[in-house]
Write a structure and sequence with these properties.
heterodimer; A: 377 residues; alpha/beta; Rossmann fold; 3 domains; 5-stranded parallel beta sheet; 4-stranded parallel beta sheet; 18 helices; globular; B: 268 residues; 2-enoyl-CoA Hydratase, Chain A, domain 1; 6-stranded mixed beta sheet; 4-stranded mixed beta sheet; 11 helices
């Protein structure tokens, strides 16, 4: 209750109004500014709270590839589906993943067609299920960014039952920022970094943005005041021509990150090039289980090669371009017509963190002030 | 791609041989570095871009693009890299740049030649300046270079009809300045003689004239180039590019032209 009460101040209408004014003032002489966030939760909260209406029209907040479900490679889902059809084998994964369309079907379809798939809420659930059913084989299909991968590392380090394997599709965000700069012809002027991921990595994982691109990045929280503060800090850095990595979420993030968590990750995983669904293969952006723990690596221990080639997106699907921030959901011909949350055509419409799902539910965030004031702030 | 740079008698000679005339991302980067060094060599006043023997250049390399997980990303990177080269050639102030087309050229390769101040073609070569057959609208400053050199109407015909043209036709239109000998060695000798002559006599006046002339050409080209890239990116994402690329890479043929041979007249 106390923590909940503490968070209320980060939704305070007065602070929001004050920050909105400050943003207008700092951006007055800047012209059009394009900022990108790389977090599905950011887009969800921006749209849900109508944050864009508090910004001058010259400030564009572009959603990037921040939804872990959306960027999960179809190749990995195909592997999970292949495993789900194997005798005495159950694939365990988070709820969002189950409905994501893969090359031919989703995990949900596979379950309907006789495959064994169960939803879990955490890696710990997977461990418990495996312990309770020692005669069955379980595969934990792990997705997510830096925040999620820590839990998996912890689970592996503390020891898991012999009948539990891990199919790892986790991704590491920092290298993708380079790709985004290239795709956008270096027109992005600043990044809002995901606050929760920064609690793990700290700020130095993004030093290359300062060194290589001279671009400001701001670790940003998730309440309306946090988000506006992140935007304000970013604009201030742009105005003052200070391409630094700044922490606007100090109640959770520290400069060096969570050193214990980082050590856990380093102990268990190494990094390799990884596919970001429909986007590209990005160097150094995927986690791989170290040889020492290969006995629980589903890719090495089980036969998970699908009997068909992968297909990243169905024809006409623009999800990959939406994830890159090149298109908005409203630019996609299928958005709200043939692609809806109850009947998703592409991955961005499946997860509540997907930009299309968010915009379907909340609009782009330009909701009426009265509504916002009455219901959220 | 083999890139060789040599200097002789105040003239820098830059040869770039690519398989089938294609320039992939790495080649473009290497080319640009070499060109930068050539542009900064004080003892030379002329740079001759020789391209390769069989092809001057055919622009971006579709083979690695086709094999890439997301071909669009690499295609876009590759064409931006070639754009950078064309821009650098166009903005070379301290040297006169000559394009010596020993071999044929297509798409971005044609634009690379057009970025040079003087352009000579070997009799018998063919130019294919349109990108349309590959499902692309075009980049590498085509929308600035072509209309400036051959006029709006001729540009329309070349780009929309997308037929190749002969060396003689290219000279008639103003894309090339002269058609030289068909025999490789004699062609090279003729270009070398011209280059050395320009370097020896009144090079400062030629460079001053270039500065004046190019000021108009390069005036406010940024928006135009941005539009070229935007449309190019849209095309890269379109099924037409995927189909044309697949046909070209996997079957080794270009899509059929509507009126093959109409624009490609026999050399006299």
């Amino acid at each position: 209750m106390g923590e909940h009460a503490n968070l209320e101040k980060y939704k305070n209408a007065e602070y929001v109004a004050h920050l909105s004014k400050a943003i207008k003032a700092v951006s007055a002489s800047l012209g059009t500014v394009k900022l990108m966030h790389v977090c599905g939760t950011h887009e969800h909260e921006i749209a849900r709270h109508g944050i864009r209406q508090f910004l001058p029209p010259t400030i564009q907040i572009i959603p990037g590839p921040g939804c872990p479900v959306c960027i999960c490679p179809v190749e990995s889902i195909d592997q999970a589906i292949t495993l789900a059809y194997q005798p005495n084998t159950t694939v365990l994964t988070f709820g969002d993943m189950v409905r994501v369309p893969a090359s031919h079907e989703s995990l949900e379809d596979a379950r309907r067609n006789g495959g064994s798939v169960k939803m879990v809420y955490s890696a710990l659930d997977a461990v418990n299920l495996a312990r309770e059913n020692p005669n069955s084989t379980f595969v934990f299909f792990s997705i997510g960014f830096e925040t999620t991968v820590v839990g998996i590392a912890g689970m592996i380090k503390t020891g898991i039952p012999k009948n539990l394997y891990v199919l790892l599709a986790n991704r590491y965000m920092p290298p993708v920022l380079k790709l985004l700069m290239d795709v956008h012809d270096e027109s992005i002027q600043g990044f809002l970094l995901a606050g929760h991921a920064a609690t793990i990595t700290g700020l130095h994982a993004y030093d290359f943005m300062e060194d290589e691109f001279q671009l400001p990045c701001v670790a940003t929280g998730f309440e309306p005041v946090d988000i506006l503060l992140g935007i304000f800090e970013c604009l201030k850095l742009i105005k003052n021509k200070e391409p630094r990595i700044v922490n606007a979420y100090p109640r959770a993030v520290n400069e060096h990150g969570n050193t214990v968590a980082l050590q856990l990750i380093e102990d268990v995983f190494e990094r390799k090039p990884g596919i970001w669904r429909g986007i590209d293969i990005v160097d150094d952006s995927a986690f791989r289980i170290k040889e020492e723990y290969s006995f629980l690596d589903a890719e090495k221990q089980l036969d998970c090669t699908p009997p068909y080639p992968p297909r990243s997106h169905p024809p006409g699907c623009d999800c990959h371009r939406i994830m890159l921030g090149e298109l908005l959901p409203t630019n996609c011909k299928m958005f709200t017509k043939t692609c809806t949350p109850s009947n998703p055509y592409g991955p961005c419409m499946v997860s509540p963190e997907g930009t299309c799902h968010t915009w379907f539910k909340h609009g782009s965030g330009k909701i009426s002030l009265t509504h916002t004031a009455a219901h959220t702030i | 791609m083999e890139i060789v740079y040599k200097t002789k008698n105040q003239v820098g000679h830059l040869e770039f041989h690519g398989y089938n005339g294609a320039m992939d991302l790495e080649h473009c980067t290497h080319f640009l570095q070499t060109y930068e060094e050539a542009a900064e060599t004080p003892e030379t006043r002329i740079i001759v871009l020789w391209g390769g023997v069989d092809f001057f250049s055919n622009g971006i390399d579709l083979n690695p693009i086709h094999l890439r997980y997301n071909p669009v990303i690499l295609a876009y990177k590759n064409l931006k890299a070639l754009n950078k080269i064309v821009k650098r050639v166009l903005e070379t102030k301290n040297k006169l740049v000559i394009a010596a087309l020993r071999g044929s050229a297509a798409a971005g390769g044609v634009m690379l030649a057009l970025a040079a101040d003087l352009r000579y073609g070997r009799k018998g070569i063919v130019l294919n300046p349109s990108y349309v057959n590959m499902g692309l609208s075009g980049s590498e400053y085509w929308s600035i270079l072509l209309p400036s050199m051959i006029g709006y109407g001729h540009t329309q015909k070349l780009i929309y009809e997308a037929n190749p043209i002969s060396c003689r036709k290219a000279v008639e239109l103003g894309m090339l300045h002269d058609q030289l000998d068909m025999e490789q060695n004699r062609f090279c000798q003729q270009v070398r003689e011209k280059a050395e002559y320009f370097a020896r006599f009144n090079i400062e006046a030629r460079l001053a004239a270039k500065e004046v002339l190019n000021k108009r050409l390069l005036y406010s080209m940024e928006d135009q180039v941005k539009l070229e890239l935007q449309r190019m990116k849209d095309c890269c994402n379109h099924a037409e590019f995927q189909q044309a690329r697949t046909q070209f890479v996997e079957k080794g043929t270009e899509p059929p032209q509507l009126f093959p041979g109409i624009a490609l007249e026999k050399d006299r």
